[in-house]
Design goal:
Layout: H1 10-19, H2 26-38, E1 42-45, H3 52-63, E2 66-71, H4 78-81, E3 83-85, H5 87-99, H6 106-113, E4 119-121, H7 123-129, E5 134-139, H8 146-158, E6 160-163, E7 167-170, E8 176-181, H9 189-193, E9 196-199, H10 205-215, H11 221-236, H12 245-257, H13 265-271, H14 279-288
Parallel strand pairs: 1-8, 1-9, 2-5, 5-8
Antiparallel strand pairs: 3-4, 6-7
Helix pairs in contact: 1-2, 1-3, 10-11, 10-12
The structure holds adenosine-5'-diphosphate (ADP) and magnesium ion.
């Protein structure tokens, strides 16, 4: 359990995250630092494509830690999140024991098949048991059913997991935990209480330009400015799916590929499909931005 695995200050977080390609604003860097220093899970909430998942990956890269990811979905259960017993293998062992004619008692068999060898470890248990620095990413936690949060609580509050047949497994080294949520539903107060909270939103124009330029260095600076300004205007429209940072980066790559040196209305209209993925959004943008074809 060492906080030394992570960041030594907010500035250190900024610098080291940037070195791995993640440009954090001051609030993000500070919270990332605190999550490591206080060894508290970090809940990151915000719309799709603002860098929630990437933050966890960047913390892992910046610290040389391994990323263990639990992707949440509707119907996720304990067997997929924590551990399950390998029934097939257990059954084979029972049959094999019977076949040898050894009169093993049930107690002996039971002690034999509920051991490490028959345990299938899922992400939460994997992260708890690792002895090397680990970032545990619990991604899109709002997609699970509320019951799963009960499961997360034991892990997040005590950093331990109880397996009835084996006993309690406590973390030797606390993972850096990042939970992400698109806020499609409210998480329970109990989960929130255990976490530090960060609301991530779309970056301001300057930061977005830095992100785009760092990932697509060949993009002309003036075009980069036009690009982020247009993206910002699109995000103000009532769209089904506002363009995310990933789409800004894709757009930049598109402009390079097409050798577009000026993002005028025609260029925007011609390449809008890279940024907007719904016909109705497309129509709305053409109308509201008064794009000429
Ligand atoms: N601060 C950032 N610095 C660099 N790249 C970023 C940043 N935020 C987002 N990105 C880029 O945007 C993409 C989408 O981010 P992601 O983390 O997948 O979004 P979500 O919030 O939906 O989890 C990432 O692949 C990454 O390339
Ligand atoms: Mg994500």
């Amino acid at each position: 359990m060492t906080a030394a695995d992570w960041f030594s200050s907010p500035d250190d977080a900024t610098t080291r995250l940037a070195a791995t390609g993640y440009l954090a604003d001051p609030a993000t860097a500070t919270t990332a630092y605190l999550a490591g220093a206080l060894q508290k899970p970090l809940l990151v909430e915000g719309p799709a494509g603002v860098g929630k998942t990437e933050l966890a990956k960047a913390v892992a890269r910046a610290s040389g830690a391994e990323l263990v990811r639990l992707q949440c979905y509707e119907g996720l259960d304990e067997a997929r999140a924590l551990y399950e017993w390998n029934y097939k293998k257990q059954l084979l062992r029972i049959q094999a024991t019977q076949a040898t004619g050894d009169a093993a008692t049930w107690d002996e068999t039971h002690d034999d098949i509920f051991t490490e060898e028959f345990l299938l470890t899922r992400p939460l248990l994997t992260a708890i048991r690792r002895e090397e620095p680990t970032v545990l990413l619990i991604d899109e936690v709002d997609k699970t059913d509320v019951e799963v949060e009960g499961l997360l609580l034991e892990v997040l509050s005590d950093f331990q997991v109880t397996i009835p047949e084996l006993g309690t497994v406590a973390a030797v080294r606390r993972p850096f935990v990042v939970l992400t949520s698109n806020a499609t539903r409210e998480l329970s107060e109990a989960v929130k209480r255990r976490c530090l909270y960060l609301h991530l939103d779309y970056p301001d124009a300057e930061r977005e330009r830095e992100i785009v330029s760092s990932q697509v260095p060949d993009l002309d600076e003036r075009v980069a400015g036009q690009l982020v300004a247009t993206i910002a205007r699109l995000r103000e429209l009532e769209l089904k799916k506002a363009p995310s940072i990933a789409e800004s980066v894709d757009w930049a790559r598109t402009l390079i590929a097409l050798e577009i040196g000026d993002l005028d209305d025609k260029a925007v209209a011609d390449t809008l499909g890279v940024v907007l993925k719904h016909a109705s959004d497309h129509d709305r943008a053409v109308r509201e931005l008064r794009l000429r074809k």
